[in-house]
Amino acid sequence: MHGDQTRGLQRTWYEGATLENIVTRAVVRELEFVLEHPNFWRAALRKGATDPTFWQEFRELGRESVSRFLECHAKLLGRALGEDEIERVRFAFQMVRGTLNNTLMNQPGPFQLEDEVFRRQMERAFHLIAGIDAADGAGAKR
Predict the structure, then answer these.
(1) CB 137 within 8 Å of CB 76
(2) Among 84, 90, 44, residue whose Cα is nearest residue 65
């Protein structure tokens, strides 16, 4: 059920995305799920700590989500992404998800999941890690 619901949302999540808002959409998608289902996600994290096979469906959904982002980003840029760009985006998603999980479970502060500054800083970190210029969504010059 969860998988089917998530796949349906993933198919439409980036419709109408622009270079300027694709990262915001990615972070909002990740954050909203945790905020809308905190008890479910806490239970999933606890279960996954003792049963590694439990995460298989979540891993597949996560990979599909990242693939959809990569496809959309490449389309918006009008070119294929390089291996380095793909690696940076994948790690940006890993950073976002790990930070969300840690904040949900451990509440290390100073910011909480519900804080606007938390979302804003998650977007900023995603931009920096992925090498996506916040101004235009294109790969940052390095």
Answers:
(1) yes
(2) 90
pLDDT at 81: 98
Confidence (pTM): 0.87
What's at 55, amino acid-wise? Answer: W
Question: What share of the chain in percent tops pLDDT 90?
Answer: 65
**Under a CB-based contact definition with an 8 Å cutoff, are residues 24 and 121 in contact?**
no
Cis bond upstream, residue 110 (ω within 30): yes
Q: Please tell me the distance from the alpha carbon of residue 68 to that of residue 14, in angstroms, as a whole number.
A: 8
C-alpha separations of 44 from 54, 72, 78, 131 in Å: 8, 29, 38, 31
Tokens encoding 30: 């990740």
CA distance linking residue 126 with residue 142, whole number of Å = 16
> What's phi and psi for 19, nearest 5 deg?
-60, -30
Q: Residue 5: pLDDT band by 50, 70, 90 thresholds? A: low
